[in-house]
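Notes, Module 5: Reading structure tokens.

Key idea: the token line is not a picture. It is a compressed description, and you learn to read it the same way you learned to read a sequence, by spotting repeated patterns. We will look at two proteins. The first is printed below with its tokens.
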Amino acid sequence: MKPTIIDVAERAKVSKATVSRVLNNNPQVKDEIRERVLRVIEELGYRPSAIARNLATNRSNVIGLILPDITNPYFPVIARGIEDAAHQLGYALFISNTDNDPKLEQEYIQKMVEQQVSGIVLISSTLDEETVHELTSLQMPIVLCDRLIVGKPFDAVLIDDYKAAYEAVSYFIGQGHQRIAHLAGPRNIQSAENRKTGYLDAMRSANLEPFVSVGTFSYESGMHQMGAVIDEYRPTALFASNDLLALGAMQEIHRRGLTIPGDIAVIGCDDIPFSKMSRPMLSTISIPVYQIGVTAVQLLEDQMKGVRVGMKSVIMEHKLIHRESCGGVDLL
């Protein structure tokens, strides 16, 4: 028969409540009592029930992660960073994929609340007014990745998407390109909108006429959009809002018998593993994706332990990686 908390309390000559406080690292327990209880726990091989602990504390040892598209190679890397950091802190991870469906996202948020997760890391497909209102009313630790809600009490980890796009387009302008197209991501995704704004401002600052094609963050969308861009705009350079779009665009450029970067130079964003496998290798904005996940859990842990009150935004550093597709030489 497995030992119970009553067995531990009786042998350690303390109350059940004291054993519970020791298990939950309550600082009010005296060191001598804590050591005695822990010694008895070891002797008996007692393992506390996670279910019982959840009922007692109204929280679990589980962190929820909500992703918009698990098939995008960018997001599993974030998930790995979150999982590794959560495991190190003693938490399990509950992952939900929304397929960029706002209604499914709200459904998963509610399910995680019902499961009494300790906190949620959210990479939202959209942050509309209804979603923001629901998040604000939850009274639960929440950290946003790749998104930021100005004026709302949510921690966030992200890069400066506007600055990254501006730098990429400015590089092209510095190389003498004047017809620079942009493949943008969905209008309801904040990072895509910020990258588009960075592109537009860089073009306008150089008195160049912009050309934007809006689609989804997919390889297929990149192929489809690029055909229309070539027909309508005849660009000499392309900045794509993510690497999947860029790789799809490169496929269409090859299909048209054009060369990269000779006829059209290309820069993507995210630096997913496939960017080094393409021919030519894809130039891109490198993002510390894994570290974004780790940092998100660290911020969540601060909230869950009450270490910090108030919103904190962490802007991670990005880097423009010059590879073959833009005529660069770094090849990192």
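Here is the second protein, with the sequence above and the tokens below, as before.
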Amino acid sequence: MRALVSIALLLAAPAIAAPKPDAMVGIAFTSRGDVASFAEGTADPHSGRKVTIDDPARIASVSKMFVAIGVLKLVERNRLDLDADVSSYLGWPLRNPAHPEEAISLRMLLSHTGSIRDHDDQYAIPLGTSVRETLANPTSWDLKHGPREAYFAYSNMNFPIAASVMERVTGERFDIWMRREVLDPMRIDACFNWPTCSDAAVARAVVLMQDGKAVKDDLGGRRPDCPVLAKDGEACDLSRSPLGENGALFGPQGGLRISVRGLARLGRMLLNRGELDGVRVLSPMSVDLMLTPQWRFDGRNGARDAESATICSYGLSAQQIPTRGCADDPGTRGAQFVGHAGDAYGLRSGIWIDRRRGRGIAYFATGVPEDPPELSTFSQAERNAFRRSYALLPH
């Protein structure tokens, strides 16, 4: 009885104090459907439009889970091989200049173990520039640790490479193929960088603010004039980037616009081992492969930089939490979760499922200030969103 009282008090306790975000949205779900949700704050601080669970936001690195689903669908169709040298798909040699004999595979790209590194915003590659040109810069590589070492360091750049591979083998633009083959089967009105979203989704865009200024998706109900990054003064002519040359254009590393309700559908599909509302999206084997750790931190085999510091177990674009000895617990209360977190432009997001109990949560918070250094990369606002969403589940 004392334990039950303690749990009840914990659920009733207020969230940790933190600067109030512009918006906070969360949902709890099971394998069978949504349980409950909350939405508070504004989707557009300029107009005062209130946020809802159906409003799409640039969900940041959670986007990577959808890219992995796309890759695995092509693996199931025998169009891709997770362990093949990706050079054979790209049509040019992808090699760490300090380890030229070591091939890099899609498995390495999706698990951040291929020795590719970020520098500045190099993964945001503008129109008219290619992935190959960007990777010619030695700072794009870990020259000390080669691919064979399976040394983990989180790198956004892995996903423009993967998207380039997908364009090469499908002969179709990344965002269009992803909408038809991944998002539509799950009946999710979402898109990479807006072109394939419905007009209704565009009208509900969540504006991301930092320091009182709109930094992303201040659309005013209109699609952006140019859906990709183009250099100042240059025409937004997508024909300047042939398929497979610049997979960064539509933001595979973080540019998915999706609602929290849409994230819940992703979670339900994974909980049901690849099936959603009678539609087979992935095979059970592919789901297990995606969510099973490919790498675990043992004190020597992973970078401890700001972005990697609290990732201690990682699959194919899926993080496992919590891990003993790692500051990666936003409030799981002993349950084991798998999913992904996102952090960009003042937004923090997450989708997490508890496979054993068949349940999960998804959330985002916007207008979140940069946090001072702390033991966990989960910010206070992020932990609050996690815990509020988790409290909606039956316990």
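Summary for the second protein:
- The chain has eleven helices and 16 strands.
- The radius of gyration is 20 Å.
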